[in-house]
Amino acid sequence: MKMVRSIERLGAWIIDQIETLGNFVFFLFTAVFYIVMPPYKPRLAIRQLRSIGADSSFLILLIGAFTGMVLGLQGYNTLSRFASEGALGSVVALTLVRELGPVLAALMIAARAGSAMAAELGSMQATEQIDALTVMAINPVQYLVSPRILAGLISFPLLTGMFDSIGIIGGYVIGVDLMGAPGSSYMNGISQNLTAHDIMTGLYKSIVFGIVVMWICCYKGYHAQRMATGVSRATTEAVVMSSILILLWDYFLTSVLL
Amino acid sequence: MTNATSAGKASPISISIRDLRRSFGHQEVLRGVNIDFPRGKVTTIVGPSGCGKTVFLKHLNTLLRPDSGKIVIDGIDVTSVSRGGLDAVREKFGMLFQAGALFDSMPVFDNVAFPLVEKTRLSRDEIASRVRETLAAVGLEGMDDKYPSELSGGMQKRAALARALIRRPSILMLDEPTTGLDPSRTRAIHALVRQTQQRFGLTAALVSHDVPAVFEISDHVAFMHEGKIRVYGTVAEVTSAHDELFERFLAGKASGEESPAAAG
Fold first, then answer.
1. Which of A92, A179, B11, B192 could form a Cys-Cys staple with A76, CB 3.0–4.6 A?
2. Domain for residue B99, yes or no?
3. Is B115 close to A132, i.e. CB distance below 8 A?
């Protein structure tokens, strides 16, 4: 009897998980569907572009500069042991463009804009503002989620590009100006070794991360429980899950795109 | 039931509910609700917390779908219409949420204008004049640029009422409109609801636990208990109905505690 009950419970749990996963996937499909379906509301997407993109740019520039600087420092230190300081430019650029740029930019945007988004949608859910939209015959996914996903799709690659560029400059400043690596081979190394394929790899990654972060943060906020701890829990889960999925997808994409 | 579904605009019944049932898991919250909301009248549903009245209102405003039963609004059975049909029904009513549900990212003016901006093709000037007119009707002039967080609880309710009325609906639904207000503000909001209802000839469906204060503005009262309408009639009829549970509820004794299964 006990055994039957625990199997029953396991079955219920599995059904529950599958249902949640189904809702999760359906949520993204609905949001994407409404991006392409009229009526178009560019005003909403532009507002989100500002809060996800423009408002994150200072943070991205700051983190990007320091990442490039530390790469310049570490790279010079390591390469000089093999007397190959000339390769510093290629090392910094390839590391940033292929790997660190998309990943760190995505993690920073998830922490900054994603958390705010989950909290905002969560408190809208808690105070019945999402219900109010539905009752006014306005589709809340179309009004709230689709513009955010679209804005993420546009701003993630742009912010990643900013991150990479400032990082390469940061690497130059430290590696060449401070440590004394040869400046001409820093720039030549980049132009010779950084291929279109490397840039596309970074671009694909940033697009995927953009969708993943916006999707999770919107979903978690939108489905926040209506209690005092609901919003904080949604925010925490959004950031943790985004971060985990960024790294999982990064490995997966790297292994496919390598 | 057939005449309920075929009831047209001229029908004296605005909303008709037949055998509405809804469970959450093993918990049966609505156990066969039957009630009519007469056109142009205020019908108030009262009952202890957890009796199912909030869940009931969420079915009435189409946020939830029932397991079985019929909800007929102005002749349209909302339990069987398509999504597009549902949107058409949603345009017939305005809803005042318990905490107002004003969009806190927008000032009062934009909140009230929102349904017009999003759902109509009116010009800016037309929208502005209609918003001002509606804000004046709820006694909220000169607050256009204030954000909801800068308003008192009573003012938030007024702004939310203005938003609910802006599209000139024929039905107004109100979820505990006086929760969190002091007695004098409660009276003021009640008076305002009655006044706007009469001015626009609205059918009002009101959920409240504010007894007996809410009786003053009600034409009909329904007492909900354990997911069913137990007592229904005009205010005079229900107050002389001699139903033991209703009298205990009026006297302020918690009848809900006797039946923990009926929580909702």
1. A179
2. no
3. no
Question: Residue B104 phi/psi, 5° resolution?
Answer: -80, -5
CA B262 – CA B240 distance, rounded (Å):
26
| Angle B6-B7-B11 from CA coordinates, rounded to 5° | 165
Give the residue on A whose Cα is nearest the Cα of B64: A131
**Count of all residues that appear for chain B in the document:** 264
pLDDT in tens, B97-151: 988 899 999 999 999 999 999 989 999 999 999 999 999 989 888 889 999 999 9
Domain shared by B68 and B137, yes or no? no
Residues in A touching B114 (Cβ below 8 Å):
136
Has this prediction a pTM greater than 0.90? no
Q: Say if B147 is an interface residue toward chain A (CB within 8 Å).
A: no
Domain boundary residue, one of B149, B167, B185: B167
What Cα–Cα distance (Å) separates residue A220 from each residue in A15, A45, A144, A250, B130? 20, 20, 13, 21, 37
Cα A242 to Cα A112: distance, rounded to the nearest angstrom: 12
Please indicate, yes or no, whether residues B122 and B81 belong to a single structural domain of this protein: no
Domain that holds residue B121: 107-167
